[in-house]
Amino acid sequence: MTAFHRSPPPSTALSPEHRRATLVRARDLFNAGAYWEAHEALETVWRSIIREEEALVWQGLIQAAAALLHQQRDNRHGVEVVGRAALEKLAGPGRPDVEFETATFRAQLARALTGEGDPPRLEFRTDD
């Protein structure tokens, strides 16, 4: 089973500073189109999650990066399967315990995965 279909491993706590630095790195990598590297950085945060509901959103972001990597590699099946899973996990309102904005991201991801728009950008929420 892959990292896309399991619960996060036992929690490895991140300090607030390390978590923020990891999120900045993930955002920068994702927005530069380095989806595999962004996926890895996002997994660092995912592994530190205790609450399952929060973990699902992080898993959706990880899957979004993987789906876009499949798209870069012209793997249509990967785009459809992993992209659908990402969209399901990112559905619903944003979560206050997830620093990234997910509602607009999800809408942009849906368009990008069908070839109707540019890839979404990971952006920090501004409502803090």
Overview of this protein structure:
The chain is mainly alpha-helical and 128 residues long. The protein has a single domain, classed as Hyaluronidase domain-like, CATH 1.10.3450.10. The protein is 58% helix and 0% strand. It is built from 5 helices and no strands. The protein has helices at residues 16-31, 35-46, 52-72, 76-89, 103-113. Helix 1 (16-31) packs antiparallel against helix 2, helix 3 (52-72) packs antiparallel against helix 4 and helix 4 packs antiparallel against helix 5. It is globular. The N and C termini lie far apart (36 Å). Residues 1-5 have low confidence and may be disordered.
Secondary-structure element string: HHHHH
- Name the CATH superfamily assignment: TTHA0068-like
Strand content: under 5%
* Count of the domains: 1
- Give a count of the beta strands, DSSP E runs of length 2 or more: 0
Helical run tally: 5
Q: Which architecture name does CATH use?
A: Orthogonal Bundle
Structural class by helix and strand composition: mainly alpha
